[in-house]
Backbone:
């Protein structure tokens, strides 16, 4: 197990390097002095000159990248221009709400998708199946910002059942305050989940061991619950894992709508503030976040399926 | 897909017509494809023609008209807070979203497919570099990548297109590379090679027609995604700027008036939904037509 985790982490290194190159080039590909761009329009010439030296902008690009990477490894992402504090500190307070929101949305999407997929798979080709198929097409095309906005206006502004912003206090508070944002995200991903899960269920229902279970006279509910659904849990996790980046990306919009103090809201705000060190930092953290959750997904296979060995 | 490539390989000249023949046969009963094409056809016609027919200006405030008007003959979907006709603004906004999504998708489809074709056929360092890009884009959320690029380029409609060009081609390259890896070892390619065809000709004339369908089916899902991305960015204020109409921006602008007039926010959302569902249905239909057993 430990060896597997270690190997996976080693495999992450090339991807992490690629992400760091992307983030590094992001600001340097804009015409103009990166120091001036990163410090914004109100910077003094002295500050720009100091930043210019700090970023080693007169050196060749690979030397600049080397020093960027060195700082990165020490956890130094520069200072936020707007908040005047280290980007790392800003990020540390911003990451937990986003992680909570993503996991919450993943759980909700399972609660939405499993019943729908089950309903469709057990009524294959009939109107229930068509209805669920219609739902998947509509929910795939449904803009998350629109759903989020509608939910916010109706349940938070008009009926005041949920707060209009923030992420609440304590675990129960988070669950309450983040319900609408998590639901908006869950709806966006549930169409993909329903489709994948439906075909996986159908495949399992046609499998030999399920036919055997039926043949020996087990009641329908028990066959489905024990033999079919349990086997399809693995594919649910797989589909969630594959679409994780999509789910995480949605936080940019949803956190902005619901004023959740996470990194999604932070990156959008930082664009308007032209706070490039923060934009670079958040982009990096988004990549790391997906990599880490992906690793956790793979580890959960071992729990769900005893046949999977991690070596 | 597999059914057509795994079929006993005929000579090089017969390689292409086989799947096409199957496609024609099942297209007659393909309701998804027909419905999708009809929806998109009507939507495009509406966005092209309605701005010409409509007497209303999409951007200038019109205080001769009532604000927040209910649907009527003069204003089929009512008016907004500036007395502007909502249907006219939807049509102009649709032009923006459809053009952005099409420009973004078409270029990434062509460039990505060609790069995937070369990487899959040639292998070597091109393939290694491509796979690093693939690892990267699988890890990074698409929306975050586009937002990061737009953050540097500056908010505008065309910068969204450029941002999607920069990050969107990888998905096509990955798909076509995978299909090419399979096709490369099939007999019809072998036959073409023995017949002395150049690599370029084999790739473009033999392999591409057989692997393109998967990329095209994906392009329809990508159109849905790009319409959502383009309108999301405008919603966030990173795309089309007021007073110009755009679907996502119209939702954002309606937020302060929702309790007064919920319709203003509803219409543009439905417009995105119709466009997305249309392309989604076309994608489903094409997948069905190109994969007879599926």
Residues:
């Amino acid at each position: 197990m430990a060896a597997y985790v270690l190997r996976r982490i080693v495999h992450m290194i090339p991807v992490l390097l690629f992400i760091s190159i992307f983030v590094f080039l992001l600001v340097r590909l804009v015409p103009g002095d990166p120091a001036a761009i990163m410090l914004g329009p109100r910077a003094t010439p002295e500050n720009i000159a100091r930043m210019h030296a700090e970023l080693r902008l007169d050196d060749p690009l690979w030397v600049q990248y080397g020093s960027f990477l060195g700082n990165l490894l020490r956890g130094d992402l520069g200072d936020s221009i707007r908040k005047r504090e280290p980007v790392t500190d800003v990020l540390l307070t911003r990451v937990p709400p986003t992680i909570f929101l993503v996991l919450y949305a993943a759980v909700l999407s399972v609660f939405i998708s499993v019943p729908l997929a089950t309903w469709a798979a057990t009524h294959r080709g009939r109107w229930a199946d068509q209805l669920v198929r219609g739902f998947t097409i509509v929910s795939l095309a449904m803009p998350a910002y629109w759903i989020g906005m509608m939910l916010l206006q109706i349940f938070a502004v008009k009926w005041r059942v949920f707060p209009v912003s923030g992420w609440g206090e304590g675990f129960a508070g988070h669950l309450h305050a983040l319900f609408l944002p998590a639901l908006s995200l869950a709806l966006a991903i549930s169409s993909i989940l329903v489709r994948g899960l439906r075909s996986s269920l159908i495949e399992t229902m046609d499998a030999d061991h399920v036919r055997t279970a039926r043949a020996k006279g087990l009641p329908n509910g028990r066959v489905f619950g024990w033999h079919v659904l349990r086997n399809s849990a693995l594919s649910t996790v797989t589909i969630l894992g594959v679409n994780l980046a999509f789910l995480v990306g949605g936080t940019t919009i949803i956190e902005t709508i619901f004023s959740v103090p996470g990194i999604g809201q932070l990156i959008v705000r930082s664009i308007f503030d032209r706070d490039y060190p923060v934009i670079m930092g958040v982009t990096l953290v988004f990549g790391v976040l997906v990599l880490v959750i992906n690793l956790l997904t793979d580890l959960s296979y071992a729990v769900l399926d005893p046949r999977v060995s991690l070596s | 897909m597999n059914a057509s490539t795994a079929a006993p390989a005929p000579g090089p000249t017969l390689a292409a017509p086989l799947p096409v023949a199957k496609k024609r046969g099942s297209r007659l009963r393909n309701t998804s494809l027909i419905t999708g094409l009809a929806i998109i056809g009507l939507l495009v016609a509406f966005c092209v023609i309605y701005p010409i027919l409509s007497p209303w200006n999409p951007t200038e405030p019109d205080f001769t008209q009532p604000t927040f008007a209910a649907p009527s003959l003069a204003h089929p979907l009512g008016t907004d807070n500036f007395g502007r006709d909502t249907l006219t603004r939807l049509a102009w906004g649709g032009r923006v979203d459809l053009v952005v999504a099409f420009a973004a998708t078409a270029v990434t489809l062509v460039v990505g497919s060609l790069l995937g074709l070369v990487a899959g056929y040639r292998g070597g360092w091109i393939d290694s570099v491509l796979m690093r890009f693939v690892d990267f884009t699988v890890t990074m959320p698409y929306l975050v990548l586009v937002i990061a690029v737009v953050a540097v380029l500056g908010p505008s409609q065309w910068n969204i297109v450029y941002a999607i060009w920069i990050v969107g081609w990888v998905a096509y390259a990955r798909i076509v590379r995978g299909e090419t890896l399979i096709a490369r070892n099939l007999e019809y390619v072998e036959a073409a090679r023995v017949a002395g065809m150049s690599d370029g000709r084999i790739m473009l004339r033999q392999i591409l027609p057989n692997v393109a369908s998967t990329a095209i089916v994906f392009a329809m899902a990508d159109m849905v995604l790009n319409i959502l991305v383009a309108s999301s960015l405008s919603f966030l204020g990173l795309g089309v700027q007021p007073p110009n109409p755009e679907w996502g921006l119209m939702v954002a602008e309606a937020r302060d008036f929702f309790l007064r007039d919920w319709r203003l926010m509803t219409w543009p959302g439905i417009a995105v939904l119709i466009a997305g569902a249309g392309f989604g249905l076309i994608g489903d239909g094409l997948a069905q037509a190109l994969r007879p057993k599926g």
User: Anything to note?
Assistant: Chain B is about 70% helix and 0% strand. Chain B touches chain A through 48 residues (CB under 8 Å).
